[in-house]
């Protein structure tokens, strides 16, 4: 029997991101910028940016997952790393699609915490095992999640670094 998975459609993502933004607004948090954890967090950050009227969006590229439930030992920041001076004394909303182990969010949160006035995290999904308990969560699940942006195969396969 196949493993039951959580499936997020594009339509459901639209509702989820609006509800997540509403939770941020209802909490009275007014971020100066939204920091996206690429790649899955790009979609969340864009939606939150529009819903919260925050035009200042930044991206942090972090590699951790290498396949379905396969990951590196530790998450790794990939260049370009945001310049800390751009974050100084700002209220930052970190956006990602899922807090699974929480290792990626912890890396980004800790990077920000040294420089910003305040940092909070918003995710579509949070898993119980996450080391980071996010401030704003649309849904909690233990299942593997099929996101609409990564559920299909790539249009083109890139040659691996060793090829």
UniProtKB/TrEMBL annotation:
<dbReference type="InterPro" id="IPR029057">
    <property type="entry name" value="PRTase-like"/>
</dbReference>
<dbReference type="InterPro" id="IPR000836">
    <property type="entry name" value="PRTase_dom"/>
</dbReference>
<feature type="domain" description="Phosphoribosyltransferase">
    <location>
        <begin position="10"/>
        <end position="150"/>
    </location>
</feature>
<dbReference type="GO" id="GO:0016757">
    <property type="term" value="F:glycosyltransferase activity"/>
</dbReference>
<dbReference type="Pfam" id="PF00156">
    <property type="entry name" value="Pribosyltran"/>
</dbReference>
<keyword id="KW-0808">Transferase</keyword>
<keyword id="KW-0328">Glycosyltransferase</keyword>
<protein>
    <submittedName>
        <fullName>Phosphoribosyltransferase</fullName>
    </submittedName>
</protein>
């Amino acid at each position: 029997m196949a493993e039951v998975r959580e499936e997020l459609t594009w339509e459901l993502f639209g509702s989820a991101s609006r509800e997540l933004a509403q939770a941020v607004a209802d909490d009275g948090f007014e971020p100066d910028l939204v920091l996206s954890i690429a790649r899955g967090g790009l979609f969340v950050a864009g939606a939150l940016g529009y819903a919260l009227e925050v035009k200042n969006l930044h991206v942090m590229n972090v590699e951790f997952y290498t396949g379905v439930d396969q990951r590196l030992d530790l998450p790794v920041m990939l260049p370009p790393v945001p310049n800390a001076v751009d974050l100084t004394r700002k209220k930052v909303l970190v956006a990602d699609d899922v807090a699974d182990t929480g290792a990626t969010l912890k890396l980004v949160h800790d990077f920000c915490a040294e420089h910003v006035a305040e940092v909070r995290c918003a995710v579509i999904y949070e898993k119980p095992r996450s080391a980071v308990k996010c401030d704003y969560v649309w849904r909690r699940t233990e299942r593997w999640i099929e996101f609409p942006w990564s559920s299909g195969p790539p249009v083109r396969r890139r040659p691996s670094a060793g090829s």
